Amino acid sequence: MKTQTDRTLYEQTVISIMSRLPEAGILQIVDFAKFIENQSSVHKSDEEEKWNSLLAGPESKKTMREMAKEALEDYHSGKTTEITINKNGKLEPA
């Protein structure tokens, strides 16, 4: 079991790392922390259950390859949009 001392050391480590990062790196850490926080507090939605069922099926590898191929084709043909993290830690078009 982790103690309060362990938690404090982890917090100090994160703060130390963040103090050496540029603003963009700090925003990435905050965005990731918000993602982890959300994942630990959200119940699976119906949509998430559908994705889990799809990915668990025998056709999932084929489906994922097709999706990856389509995404690469979109990227190479210029149909994608560059994104960045804004000062609120949200993704937005660059």
Structural overview:
With 94 residues, the chain is mainly alpha-helical. The protein has one domain. It is 67% helix and 6% strand. The protein has helices spanning 4-19, 23-41, 46-56, 60-76; strands spanning 83-85, 91-93. The chain has a two-stranded antiparallel sheet with strand order 1-2. The mean pLDDT is 85.
- Strand arrangement, largest sheet? 1-2
Question: What distance lies between the first and last C-alpha atoms, to the nearest angstrom?
Answer: 43 Å
Q: Describe the main β-sheet briefly.
A: 2 strands, antiparallel
Mean model confidence by pLDDT: 85
Number of domains: 1
Low-pLDDT segments, ≥5 res: none
Cα-atom Rg, whole angstroms?
19 Å
Q: Total number of helical segments?
A: 4
Q: Helix and strand succession?
A: HHHHEE
Structural classification: mainly alpha
Helix content percent band: 55-70%
Proportion of beta-strand residues: 5-15%
Q: How many β strands by DSSP?
A: 2
What is the molecular shape? flat
